[in-house]
Write a structure and sequence with these properties.
heterodimer, A: 313 residues, alpha/beta, Rossmann fold, Alpha-Beta Plaits, 2 domains, six-stranded mixed beta sheet, four-stranded antiparallel beta sheet, 13 strands, globular, B: 260 residues, mainly alpha, 11 helices, 0% strand, binds adenosine-5'-diphosphate, binds magnesium ion, ATP hydrolysis activity (chain A)
Chain lengths: 313, 260
């Protein structure tokens, strides 16, 4: 569905060197797959997505979407994919149903057929009751759902979702995940960007981790965790200002039970196959953390390992 | 796919927009010409006792000012319709970006938006001419129809460069330039209210170069039946060149704005 080789995007800036937002990435997305771009703000995810959506010209490398070249067949590509952009582009003065209807018409779909599909999509994203409401009166989560419904109006082979749940409360996010999961079951190819680890873990079969315009790791969520992290993570928290100074003592206390200890401003992360055993070792050494927590390792830990930084600030 | 059929795909959108706003605009589109013609033509005109030879051949000030008001009105409508609604589509609501994610291309998006502006101009001009006609300001029915068509062209030709500018601006403060330097001086000094021969020679030449003067003179020739083929063809050519050249500029600038 997508084949990118050495893909680049640079932005001309007045009086400055061009800024390289994407610095040569290789990506292959197969039909029916749920593929993720995971990375912090500024990693180049949206720039990549806009090139894939055939709205932003490629600055370097090669890109094929559905076997077509976005530089020459942009209109045709756009007719076969659905896009949920990071920034909403709904017409807030129109109603929910009107937004879907007029958008469907842009694809050249007949009036009666668009009406039928708009109703079905509203049903799918659970907005049927709000069909007559003005978009400006919708909550953020409803607007995102409407944008997703809109991206489905042309029955696309592939849907691009740029940060579909950013800014939503947990409940709204779970509703969205559920809808995206159903789309995936219907065989729609999904390409998702996110800076949430749990989202990537929930939705993606395969993902790339991006940082500063480059891909720093690639694989399934489980394989990335296996490769770059441990099965469990013990989080131990000391008093304010004592975390960093306790790191050495913790490291010698856990010894070979842990693979490594990561120091964050507010806590220490002990990467270990058996988190409970690591915490016990810390206590046995006479150290007294104010709080401890053992959890499964996540993509957050992978990102921390790869870049030395946490993902969400 | 031809841009004609691609632009038509947006007709439902613009129809929906129009349905939301027509009630507000229909009242003012009748009231504006009525107020103008009463204030400027009848009342102010009552004080103006000029020799018809000094009014470019108009029998009365009312007959002189009416085509000026008509052309000025289509200009103002065109400028309004190609500024704030465009900024809304590129910045506040971003609907152009939504359209750009579909098979529509910059050319199609611009053409549909401009087609909508044209339709508004047609409606405004028809109402304006219909309100003016009972005051006997057109020498004949064909003169009224000619003035109507030409005033639509004036609005379109002036709206086109404004649209071309508006699709690339970052915010509304860029528009104050258009209103202060473009619309207001043209409105006052381009021969809509008094013959530009009253200006100093330098200013008269400057006024002659403005698109509104070209449009006012052409509209006036038609409504008064004082047609002069030579100058009329110059005016027509001027307005058509403006239309065609800035259409290309508009499409290029919109494409650049959308493809960042
Ligand atoms: N139109 C633009 N002009 C200049 N710089 C841009 C533009 N769009 C994005 N950037 C820069 O490119 C980098 C990557 O942006 P983006 O692709 O939006 O990242 P992400 O979606 O991962 O947060 C950022 O540093 C951003 O400031
Ligand atoms: Mg982004």
């Amino acid at each position: 569905m997508i084949s990118a080789r050495g893909l680049r995007k640079s932005f001309q800036q007045k009086g400055q060197e061009p800024f390289e937002a994407v610095r040569g990435i290789d990506v292959e997305v197969r039909r029916g797959e749920a593929f993720g771009f995971l990375g912090p703000n500024g990693a180049g995810k949206s720039s990549t997505m806009r090139m894939i959506a055939a709205v932003s010209p490629v600055s370097g490398g090669s890109l094929r979407i559905l076997g077509l070249d976005p530089a020459t067949d942009g209109s045709q590509i756009r007719g076969r994919i659905g896009v949920c952009p990071q920034e909403d582009s709904l017409d807030t003065e129109l109603t929910v149903a009107e937004n879907l209807y007029v958008y469907g018409r842009y694809f050249g779909i007949g009036r009666a057929e668009v009406r039928r599909r708009a109703a079905a999509q509203l049903e799918f994203v659970q907005l049927t009751e709000r069909g007559g409401a003005k978009v400006e009166d919708l909550s953020g989560g409803m607007k995102r759902r409407l944008t997703i419904a809109r991206s489905m109006i042309n029955d696309p082979e592939m849907v691009l979702l740029d940060e579909p749940t950013t800014g939503l409360d947990p409940q709204a996010r779970h509703v969205l995940w559920d809808r995206l999961f159903r789309l995936k079951q219907q065989g729609v190819t999904l390409v998702i960007t996110t800076h949430y680890m749990d989202e990537a873990e929930q939705l993606c079969d395969r993902l790339v981790v991006m940082d500063k315009g480059l891909i720093v790791a690639e694989g399934s969520p489980a394989s990335l965790i296996a490769e770059y992290s441990t099965r469990e993570v013990a989080e131990v928290r000391f008093g304010i200002g004592e975390n960093e100074s306790s790191a050495g003592a913790v490291e010698s206390a856990v010894g070979r039970r842990a693979e490594r200890v990561e120091v964050l401003p507010d806590r220490l992360l002990i990467y270990a196959a058996d988190g409970e055993a690591a915490v016990a070792a810390v206590h046995d050494a006479g150290l007294q953390p104010v709080a401890t927590l053992v959890r499964r390792s996540s993509l957050e830990d992978v990102f921390l390992r790869l870049t030395g930084r946490t993902l969400v600030d | 796919m031809s841009t004609w059929s691609m632009a038509l795909r947006q007709s439902d959108y613009y129809w929906t927009l129009y349905r939301r706003t027509w009630k507000g605009s229909v009242f003012s589109s009748f009231l504006t010409p009525l107020l103008y013609v009463l204030a400027m033509g009848v009342l102010l005109g009552g004080f103006v006792e000029a020799d018809p030879s000094r009014l470019e051949g108009a029998p009365s000030y009312l007959a002189f000012v009416a085509p000026g008001l008509l052309a000025a009105q289509t200009m103002q409508t065109a400028v309004f319709e190609t500024t704030y609604p465009v900024l809304s589509a590129t910045k506040w609501q971003r609907v152009y970006f939504g359209m750009n994610a579909t098979p529509l291309r910059a050319l199609d998006i611009a053409n549909a938006a401009l087609g909508f502006v044209l339709l508004r101009l047609v409606l405004i001009a028809i109402v304006f001419v219909a309100v003016l006609a009972p005051f006997g300001v057109f020498v004949s029915v064909p003169a009224a129809i000619g003035a109507l068509l030409v005033s639509i062209l004036v609005g379109a030709a002036i709206g086109m460069p404004v649209y071309a500018y508006a699709v690339g601006v970052p915010n509304e403060s860029s528009f104050s330039l258009i209103f202060r330097l473009g619309v207001i001086p043209q409105f006052l000094f381009s021969g809509a209210f008094f013959p530009i021969s009253n200006l100093s020679p330098a200013l008269e030449w400057l006024a002659r170069l403005t698109p509104l003067y070209q449009g006012v003179d052409l509209t006036r020739m038609l409504s008064l039946g004082t047609w002069h083929t030579g100058p009329a063809l110059v005016h027509l050519a001027y307005l058509l060149v403006l239309l065609v050249v800035f259409h290309r500029v508009a499409v290029r600038r919109l494409a650049k704005r959308l493809a960042f």
